[in-house]
Amino acid sequence: MLAAGKGExxxxxxxxxxxxxxxxxxxxxxxxxIRIVKKYVNDVVIVINSNHKExxxxxxxxxxxxQTEGKGTAAALRAVKKYLERDDEFLVxxxxxxxxxxxxxxxxxxxxxAILATESxxxxxxxxxxxxxENRLVRIVEKPENPPSKLINAGIYKLTYDIFxxxxxxxxxxxxxxxxxxxxxxxxxxxxVVTYNGIWLDIGRPxxxxxxxxxxxxxxxxxxxxxxxxxxxxKGKAIIEDGVVIKSGTYIEGPVYIGKNSxxxxxxxxxxxxxxxxxxxxxxxxxxxxxVIMENTKIPHLSYVGDSxxxxxxxxxxxxxxxxxxxxEKEVKVNIKNERVGSGRKKxxxxxxxxxRTGINVSILPGVKIGAYAWIYPGAIVDRxxxxxxxxxx
Length: 394
Ligand code: TTP
Fold this sequence. Notes:
Layout: E1 2-3, E2 23-24, E3 27-28, H1 29-37, E4 45-48, H2 53-56, E5 63-66, H3 73-78, E6 89-93, E7 97-99, H4 101-108, E8 114-119, E9 127-131, E10 137-142, E11 151-160, H5 163-167, H6 180-187, E12 192-195, E13 200-202, H7 206-219, E14 223-224, E15 227-228, E16 233-235, E17 238-240, E18 245-246, E19 251-253, E20 256-258, E21 263-264, E22 269-270, E23 274-276, E24 281-284, E25 287-289, E26 292-293, E27 298-301, E28 304-306, E29 309-310, E30 321-322, E31 333-336, E32 339-342, E33 351-352, E34 357-358, E35 363-364, E36 369-370, E37 375-376, E38 381-382, E39 391-392
Parallel strand pairs: 1-4, 4-5, 8-12, 14-17, 15-18, 16-19, 17-20, 18-21, 19-22, 20-23, 21-24, 22-25, 23-26, 24-27, 25-28, 26-29, 29-33, 30-35, 33-36, 34-37, 35-38, 37-39
Antiparallel strand pairs: 2-3, 6-11, 7-13, 8-11, 9-10, 31-32
The structure holds thymidine-5'-triphosphate.
């Protein structure tokens, strides 16, 4: 599993965790992926960035290899070479992908080298796969202006030791990285293209995390292990974990997820596709909609949180409101690595990093990112991104 990337596009979420640790239904993505993959392989090796060692060290039953030389996915794979035998067959999986077991099963059951492909409505954002009539790889074309097909590289490969001789032949790409796709292109039509149509998402930008949680919620079965006070109304599917208390007057419209030991209400309104992590407090007169709220966050009173990502241990002052819709109802744009990027969402609220504090009556405009540890002073209207640790004074 390649997990040594920087995850810059996912800031501020990655201010306090490596990208593969983003939560999907309150479980770090990488733990979900390891659980799936372990059914099919003998060993799991994760390629990490040495700055993130502390996080990955906590994962049991896997080996860690640091990517010390070179940048890019091929450089990452090369770091594993010394741990492999000549006749090993292995999977290579990008660490920021959400997929289902069927993806791994299909590629494992294919003889020889293979690449997983999936259909995308927006193929030009990805590596587009050209294959022949016998489903053999012709080539992967990176982010083409006019995509030759809808099939894209799904970031899961089955390879053999031969890949290392191809990696030795490739040169840096235009973005200055050694790309695994360039090496796979050199193998050519020995590589089989395995098409997979299940859940697939690459979590690169903050709003992808809302989407990832959404698609998993749709798959999950109902369960309620929490304590419900009188006059709690739950409509539709709700996954409510152990130790949760839902207080009187709370109205829940599923599908929603509420993680362990969280306390909701009294009189809270939790709307579809809200994913609330563990030990979260959503107190009186709060409305939450299609948002990911991570562990230990407190939203005690009178807030609206819509289409937003609120990271761990955030504290919202009373009356903190996220706006999620522009007056002109156009797509919300977000600054990603110094560029204005369309989110593809008409409704997108705020992306709030971990440990942020807001004072009373703070308003946050659509698509705004607030860096981890920032303080937003009372009464502020946050109409621009806020740096990590910044004190935003109105
Ligand atoms: P990307 O998403 O292309 O890169 P990134 O994780 O650095 O993210 P960003 O562009 O937002 O900074 O990487 C695809 C996968 O490959 C991802 O799971 C991380 C992994 N990777 C490495 O292991 N080493 C590397 O040098 C790079 C660039 C990526």
